[in-house]
Amino acid sequence: MDIGATLVGQTIAFILFVWFCMKHVWPPLIQVIEERQQKIADGLRSADQAEKELALVKKQVAQQMADAKQAAQAIVEQASQRKVQIIDEARQEADIERKKIISQGELQIEAERNRAKEELRQHVGMLAMSGAERILERSIENQAQDDIVKKLVAEI
Q1: Contact in structure between 152 and 127 (CB atoms under 8 Å)
Q2: What pLDDT was estimated at residue 140?
Q3: CA-CA to 66 of 20 to 30 Å: which in 48, 58, 102, 119?
Q4: What is the pLDDT of residue 117?
Q5: What is the pLDDT along the chain (156 residues), one digit of tens a residue?
Q6: What would you measure as the largest C-alpha separation in the chain, in angstroms?
Q7: Considering the domain boundaries, does residue 13 fall inside one?
Q8: Does residue 98 lie within any of the structural domains?
Q9: Domain coverage including residue 134
Q10: What is the total count of domains within the chain?
């Protein structure tokens, strides 16, 4: 065999091999590679979209947290105002009750004073009668004495 014929045979075999590979092997490989590239591209797009959604969700969470803090602050402020209002109402009620107790005490004191004055008047009347008895050196009947004491008390 001649080296030229071997080279021609090998060249023909190589060309047939390349043609066979291009016809039957390369298309499925290219298709698999393209599908893989498409999946990778889809995955990257999904990752980008998920990243954007994550950023959006973080913003929403931050906004909700700020809103919740404001709402909590408003509730605390309302509670403070209500506390002040309750304290003021209690203070007013206590003031009213204090005035009521003081007025009742004053009424009791006035009644006690009047009673003491009445007893003093009766006692003064009795002393006056006793003094008058001594002066007159005679005894007055109890009924007459009571009448005289009552007249004296009324005059005093």
Answers
A1: no
A2: 58
A3: 48
A4: 85
A5: 578 889 999 999 999 999 999 999 899 999 999 999 999 999 999 999 999 999 999 999 999 999 999 999 999 999 999 999 999 999 999 999 999 999 999 999 999 999 988 888 888 777 777 767 655 645 556 776 677 777 766 766
A6: 191
A7: no
A8: yes
A9: 45-155
A10: 1
Structure tokens at 51: 């990243």
Does residue 33 sit within a domain? Answer: no
Residues 6+ apart with CB under 8 A from 139: 133
List Cβ neighbours of 121 (8 Å cut-off, separation of 6 or more).
152, 153, 156
What whole-number distance in Å separates Cα of residue 26 and Cα of residue 103? 112
Distance, in Å, from the CA atom of 105 to the CA atom of 10, rounded to the nearest integer, reads: 134
- The token duo for 35 is 């599908």
Q: CA angle, corner 41, sides to 36 and 43, nearest 5? A: 95
Place of tokens 């003031």: 95
For residue 66, the SS3 value is helix
